[in-house]
Each structure stands twice: as structure tokens, then as C-alpha cells.
Amino acid sequence: MYIEDYLFDIFYNLADQDTKDAMDIAYLTSQRPADTLKITVHHIRDGELAITQNKTGAKLRFAILGSVHNYLS
């Protein structure tokens, strides 16, 4: 489902941090909401996010680039 940028921005600005994180991951990986919400820290290994899509069973890996803050503690 697609929403206009201004609606995304309104919702994002009103959301709590966990919801913002999920929105960021969904946006950056183009994953379905159900797949995004199943992601945990255990899916991150050797600088990559590795997931298996629910609907298709496709296995995907995304490189994690940039600085890492203490988000995972």
C-alpha cells in the first residue's frame, strides 16, 4: 500500500520510537509490514540483516552500513 509523503511524515512525527524504527526499516528494505515487525536483533549477523519473507519464502540479506549507535543494548 502506498501513501503520500505528507501523510507518512505526519504519522512518523506522531509515532513512538519503536514505530519510527519499524517504519524506517520497512522503508529502507521495502519489506511488507508483517515481515518488518518480525525482525529482531537476532537477524543481524556479520554486518547484515538476514530475513526470510513470509509470503514468498525468499531469503534476503541487507548490508548494514554507517555508524552503529548503542541501539541494540
TrEMBL record:
SUPFAM superfamilies: DNA breaking-rejoining enzymes. GO terms for biological process: DNA integration; DNA recombination. GO terms for molecular function: DNA binding. Keywords: DNA recombination. It comes from the Bacteria. This is Uncharacterized protein. The lineage of its organism: Bacteria, Pseudomonadati, Pseudomonadota, Betaproteobacteria, Neisseriales.
